[in-house]
Amino acid sequence: MSIHVDLDLITLVAAIVALGVGAQLLAAKYRVPSVLFLIGAGLTIGPEGLGLITPETFGASLSTIVGVSVAIIVFEGSFRLDAEAIRTGPRAVRRLVTVGAALTFLGTALTVRLLVGPSWDISLLIAALLVATGPTVITPILAVVPVRETVATTLETEGIVNDVTASVLAVVLFKAMTAQALRPRGYVFLFLQRLVLGVLIGLLIAAVVRYLLTEVDLPARAAPQTARLLTLAGAVVAFAAADSVFSEAGIVAAATAGFTLGNLELPHRDTILQFKQDVTLLVLSFVFITLAALLEFSELFALGLAGLAVVAVLMVVLRPAVVFVSTVGGGFSMRERLFISLVGPRGIIPASVATLFAIRLQTDTPPSDPAGAEILLGTVFLVILVTVVVEAGFARQIAGTLGVIQTEE
User: Fold this and answer.
1) How many whole angstroms separate alpha carbon 272 and alpha carbon 268?
2) Of 149, 211, 217, 278, which sits 20 to 30 A from 355 (CA to CA)?
3) Are 314 and 341 in contact (CB under 8 A)?
4) Cβ neighbours, 10 Å, residue 402
């Protein structure tokens, strides 16, 4: 019997990978973000479709799979983040990832609290997750919408930075939920404790990887492959090492290691980056299809009109307000500022981390909150679904209407 179950699971995993690759091919062919097809594939094979995947399919191991997958995705995004580009880039970029992120966080928390009505803990957790736009949905948009370089850089940098900061903020808030009668300075201590540990471990792993890549003599034929495997191992080891001390520090460590290595002179950098992108696409496809497959429409419908109102406020009120405040004096035209306002789809990081938290909230151990878990998953996935379909799916049409597409000379 166990052999039969294992074979079924292997077949299912293979099918998910095949669907993920198919989604990437369709995205390239029709020039729309792959996340649109990944969500569709997940819903098709999930409980609301063919029923091939249920919450029991992967059991308790799903939490570990999602955690490691998120670490790889965050590592790759951080690896591509250029410190010099952030330092010398448009002021609007720095505002969007600081003031803009703070306003988005506070505005989203207040909106969710007032319209849906969960506890402040759940509201803040949802808000932290929804700060992130993410390169996994922004990059495909810019591939089919050729806008001015400054506009593209602003959107890309915002997505990469906010992916990491949103993950860090969310995991710290989640840990704070387990503390009883925690004073304000206690939250600061928890944040700094996990942040510092994650940063230190990330720096240590980055130093080890760099030493192995630059100081150890390797056969010329094996060097590129070794470089690729070492960086992948670095992402997983950084996450695992920090996670073994504080479960919420793993993502910080992966992000730090990726950012540090990405801004160092490394041999075979191009092949490392290409390999990491390929692995991330595969992991992203697997995780997104699996998470979408576990989504039940009842969780979305349970939010009712309040859920749709939250999405509407985030898309047409909060996002434009944040962008227009952040881009004052940034050298953008009014049409470009409006385009940036209308392109803020959420992607894999909110979905992955929300599922990870929901799994833990549905257990009997603190901070157990099954009702909060349903609101968390429902709200996050509803925002992802609507923003991906509308903002990512129609990004080219929006850009064309606003006249911000750059024509080739």
Assistant:
1) 6
2) 278
3) no
4) 17
Q: Which of 346, 347, 352, 236 is nearest to 290 (CA)?
A: 352
Alpha helix (H) residue ranges in 263-390: 269-293, 297-301, 304-313, 319-326, 334-342, 348-361, 370-387
What's the number of CA atoms in the CB half-sphere (13 Å) around residue 96? 31
* Two tokens, residue 147: 């806008």
- With tokens 């370089």, the residue in question is 149
**Would you give per-residue pLDDT tens digits along the chain (409 residues)?**
444 444 477 888 888 888 888 888 887 787 777 777 888 888 888 877 888 887 677 776 777 787 788 788 888 877 877 777 767 767 888 888 889 999 999 999 999 999 998 989 899 999 999 998 877 678 778 877 888 888 888 888 888 778 777 877 887 788 777 665 556 666 677 777 878 888 999 999 999 999 998 888 877 788 888 889 999 999 999 999 998 887 667 888 988 899 899 898 888 888 888 887 788 778 877 877 877 777 777 778 888 899 999 999 999 999 999 999 999 887 889 999 999 999 988 877 787 778 778 877 877 666 678 888 889 988 998 998 899 889 888 888 899 899 998 765 4
123-157 burial by CB neighbour count: b if 16+ within 10 A, else e? bbbbbbbbbbbbbbbbbbbbebbebbebbbbbbbb
Q: How many residues in total does the chain contain?
A: 409
Question: How far is the C-alpha of 80 from the C-alpha of 59, rounded, in Å?
Answer: 33
Q: How far apart are CA 341 and CA 398, in angstroms?
A: 11
Q: Which tokens is 207 given?
A: 């130093």
Tokens representing residue 45 in the block: 């094979």
Q: Quote the crossing angle between the two packed helices 269-293 and 2-30, to the nearest 10°.
A: 110
The rounded distance, in Å, linking the Cα atoms of 93 and 84 is: 12
Query: In sequence order, which ranges of 147-183 are alpha helices (DSSP H)?
Result: 149-177
For residues 194 and 84, give the distance between their C-alpha atoms in angstroms, rounded to a whole number.
26
Question: In sequence order, what are the residues at sequence separation of 6 or more whose Cβ sits closer than 8 angstroms to the Cβ of residue 121?
Answer: 173, 177, 367, 369, 372
Instruction: Provide the CATH topology of domain 2-402.
Output: Na+/H+ antiporter like fold (1.20.1530)
